[in-house]
């Protein structure tokens, strides 16, 4: 792993496909349905978590890799491994989305979205485990947060600042068809153990830009030097029959602190769909997360599985991993890691 990553980083290029000079800057590292991915470096390798598997095969499906470019599903015999095989009493199976995991104190915390039995809305919970692979468990009778009056709550993301304080970011599900209202990204301080919220939520961003349309979601707070940067995704995540490409895209904002205020970057969106004879195909990139390997930062995201002609399929969303770079204080996404790179290639 140590030899291949510098070679891949050497391929870094500016994000905009219009400026790219490398063939197919973005290709998946895991060519299967693995939506809303999150990667945790762990014990010299990498664990990935994703939204529930098809057919109820796992509430939280997992994959593993020794080097970020070679991935395989985690299994138990002929079944998928499930990081959270039993949901808390408030949650209904089949709607477990966007898990994220952090090591904290003497355990691991899994933040997740699930459908609340009583309201039928998506809400956010937290579960604990002694192992990063699970099983994660929670006996909570209520979600950690659920904004029922404004559509529910989805897409939890946790950020630990240099002083050790932790913050939870989430989005009200206002684009739920029964609500059809403004969506906002919120921040709230977490308790010392990471399992409760402290104080009042603060709204940081809303879908107030044309490219965002009716939804902003998937917050990811990152600290670069002394600056706080929040990545997010916006617009409709899907790829409908009447759409040439998915409108889903990724942007970022600059924040004065972990609780804001935040201001959208004028160059948004910074990653978006394209179909180009030379650069290839990317449809609906988003739901990003950022992780560190040593002093390097990487970004993981999903995009829709497409045909060889960049046409819509119904096979889901696959995982991409790329270096996260910085130029004059602004984030840039490098050429993605890809299957076929080996340690020998990096020597």
From TrEMBL:
InterPro entries: Glyco_hydro_43 (IPR006710), Glyco_hydro_beta-prop_sf (IPR023296), Glycosyl_Hydrlase_43 (IPR051795). This is Glycoside hydrolase family 43 protein. Belongs to the glycosyl hydrolase 43 family. Residues 1-20 form the signal peptide. It comes from the Bacteria. Keywords: Glycosidase, Hydrolase, Signal. GO terms for molecular function: hydrolase activity.
